[in-house]
Amino acid sequence: MKESQEATGQRILVIDDEAAIRRFLHSALSSDEFILHEADSGHGGLSAAAALRPDLILLDLGLPDLEGIEVIRRIREWSQVPIIVLSVREREDDKVAALDAGADDYLTKPFGVGELLARMRASLRRSAVQLSEPVFSSGDLTVDLNLRRVTVEGAEVQLTPTEYDLLRLLITHADKVITHSQILKQIWGVAYQDQPQVLRVTISNLRKKVERDPSRPRHITTEPGVGYRFKQVQP
């Protein structure tokens, strides 16, 4: 495990076996905002995560000793630290597997520093959010989780129990991608994991009730081939 120069920012653990990528990230991210730590293997990354308790992990999938997916699974057994996958693998199956295993975001190499920084800041903001907040607001949408009351522009909207459970799941993972499989399993149960049409219909109905323009949704966005993401909108 290698560590960057002393700094006072948030701890970022880079787990990648490519020295060139680690050098690039070190150059791009080293600042007072971040303290960078590095590991060049899966087992080294797991040890570093346990020892350092980083604020965020940047993880490659193609590690020499342990698949990145397995690294995610092992970390998720004890930690909810944000994990962003940085990988050359572009297939939807790889993205779905990583997100299903517990990754928070997935960025395909090569990537721009600006996009990486934006995704890191978003993940760090989400990790600081207190999920116990009883009232969630995003733009003109407000959800009172205690009262199970949903309003749009101040007017209450009536959701079916399934629509409400789906909306609640999305907002409690705001700005994160949730895969079709994750949603189907949590809302309808394991038996429905191969029935994505059920999810599509419910998402369509939900958008008609909470989106100002369901054909151009601002809140519930589609991640093609992967799942859905609730995007928090500023008032």
TrEMBL record:
One of its GO terms (molecular function) is cis-regulatory region sequence-specific DNA binding. Residues 11-124 form the Response regulatory domain. One of its GO terms (biological process) is positive regulation of DNA-templated transcription. Gene3D superfamilies: 3.40.50.2300, 6.10.250.690, Winged helix-like DNA-binding domain superfamily/Winged helix DNA-binding domain. It is found in: Cytoplasm. GO terms for cellular component: cytosol; protein-DNA complex. Residues 133-232 form the OmpR/PhoB-type domain. Residues 133-232 bind DNA. Keywords: Cytoplasm, DNA-binding, Phosphoprotein, Transcription, Transcription regulation, Two-component regulatory system. The modification 4-aspartylphosphate is found at D60. PANTHER family: KDP OPERON TRANSCRIPTIONAL REGULATORY PROTEIN KDPE, REGULATOR OF RPOS. This is Winged-helix transcriptional response regulator KdpE. It comes from Citrifermentans bemidjiense (strain ATCC BAA-1014 / DSM 16622 / JCM 12645 / Bem) (Geobacter bemidjiensis). The lineage of its organism: Bacteria, Pseudomonadati, Thermodesulfobacteriota, Desulfuromonadia, Geobacterales.
